[in-house]
């Protein structure tokens, strides 16, 4: 098992080193080599400075990438502001707690000053997520670049984002529509090793809570009390997914094994026989989780990418040109 994972990793690195084009034909590792050679460093240092000020932004940047790619593909449509005649994706209930837009704006501004009109916002979002994972202690993966920015951002398109109350059957189907299998679903859900959720996202789990005795037959007692206390403080009150919510590690999977998953959709991954073996494997083997995560997130970053002709390079990430 270890040898086969080592071999897979070496193959992946070799492919990436020689500028392999992964899936989307026009993308490449060295896409901006001539037109904007220092853009990678500009994104990396912008993310680094942002995380030094506020480590919770690592989670925010990773989630931004996910919510971008699952709706209309990785085209930065999630960054577009609503206008008088259009309610954009970012104003949908599923996206209201997204954060990190200002980090993307800062990186874009730096890059525009050096190489105007060259680097897409979609590439910046993908790179910022990559750097956030790395600075939080996760794997480093190189990504192919050359995505173009979309011109459409509509609230109704966000119905494709998964809700925290979904069971594994629906999650498998939903992720399957984007080309991911059950193992990749679990690997990507491992992103919940970073960050937190608000009471609004997990209060459904407290429906059996007996507030007189502080117990819930369906939940670990301490967990039930923590969630209850958080929700007494209001729907916006936040609880971390695991005990090391600033660090990218396998703590999330260990939490699931102890019944401490925060969202119903998290704990469902351990309850269901199709996904439980993968949760167990990742909990016991960081290296396996890291490798599967980086392969799955690379794949996610290629979802329905727009190449020249179907998109543009936005000058301001919040507005179409
Ligand atoms: C499997 C289906 C998934 C569901 C149902 C789901 C749902 C959620 C919900 C409800 C929240 C909390 C929102 C809030 O209350 O503020 C959240 C947070 C988060 N999600 Fe997911 N998510 C899923 C998959 C993913 C994937 C695939 C990624 C990234 C690759 C991801 C990254 C994150 C991160 C990093 C946070 C924490 C954000 C922060 O602390 O600001 N999620 N997710």
Approximate helicity band: 40-55%
What's the structural domain tally?
A: 2
In terms of structural class, how would the helical and strand content be classed? mainly alpha
Give the strand tally: 2
- CA distance, first residue to last residue: 49 Å
Q: What is the architecture of the largest domain at the second tier of CATH?
A: Orthogonal Bundle
Low-confidence blocks of residues: 9-23
Provide structural commentary.
The N and C termini lie far apart (49 Å). The chain has a two-stranded antiparallel sheet with strand order 1-2. α2 crosses α5 (121-135) and α12 (276-284) crosses α13. The radius of gyration is 20 Å and the shape is globular. It has two domains: 19-161, Orthogonal Bundle (Peroxidase, domain 1), CATH 1.10.520.10; 168-295, Peroxidase, domain 2. The protein has helices at 2-17, 39-53, 57-69, 101-114, 121-135, 168-176, 182-189, 199-202, 221-232, 251-257, 264-271, 276-284, 286-300; strands spanning 196-198, 238-240. The chain has 13 helices and two strands. By secondary structure, it is mainly alpha-helical. It binds protoporphyrin IX containing FE. Residues 56, 59-60, 62-63, 66, 97, 99, 162-164, 166, 171, 188-189, 191-192, 194-198, 200-201, 263, 265 line the site of protoporphyrin IX containing FE. Protoporphyrin IX containing FE is lined by residues 56, 59-60, 62-63, 66, 97, 99, 162-164, 166, 171, 188-189, 191-192, 194-198, 200-201, 263, 265.
């Amino acid at each position: 098992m270890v040898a086969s994972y080592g071999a897979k990793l070496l193959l992946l690195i070799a492919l990436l080193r020689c500028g392999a084009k992964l899936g989307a034909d026009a993308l490449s590792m060295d896409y901006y080599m001539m037109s904007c050679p220092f853009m990678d460093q500009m994104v990396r240092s912008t993310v680094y400075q942002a995380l030094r000020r506020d480590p919770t932004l690592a989670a925010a940047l990773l989630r931004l990438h996910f919510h971008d790619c699952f709706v209309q593909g990785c085209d930065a449509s999630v960054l577009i502001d609503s206008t008088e005649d259009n309610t954009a994706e970012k104003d949908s209930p599923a996206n209201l707690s997204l954060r990190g837009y200002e980090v993307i704006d800062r990186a874009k501004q730096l890059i525009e000053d050096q190489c105007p009109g060259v680097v897409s916002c979609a590439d910046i979002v993908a790179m910022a997520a990559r750097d956030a994972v790395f600075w939080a202690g996760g794997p480093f993966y190189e990504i192919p670049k050359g995505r173009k920015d979309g011109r459409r951002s509509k609230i109704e398109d966000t119905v494709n984002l998964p809700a925290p109350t979904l069971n594994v059957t629906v999650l498998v189907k939903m992720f399957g529509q984007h080309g991911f299998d059950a193992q990749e679903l679990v690997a990507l859900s491992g992103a919940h090793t970073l960050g937190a959720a608000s009471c609004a996202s997990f209060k459904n789990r407290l429906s059996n809570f007996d507030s007189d005795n502080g117990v819930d037959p369906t939940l670990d007692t301490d967990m039930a009390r923590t969630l209850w206390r958080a929700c007494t403080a209001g729907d916006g009150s936040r609880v971390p997914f695991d005990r090391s919510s600033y660090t990218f590690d396998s703590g999330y999977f260990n939490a699931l094994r102890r019944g401490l998953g925060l969202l119903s959709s998290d704990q469902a991954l351990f309850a269901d026989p199709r996904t439980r073996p993968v949760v167990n494997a990742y909990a016991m083997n960081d290296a396996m989780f890291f490798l599967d995560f980086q392969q799955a997130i690379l794949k996610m970053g290629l979802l329905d990418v727009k190449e020249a002709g179907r998109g543009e390079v936005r000058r301001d990430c919040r507005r179409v040109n």
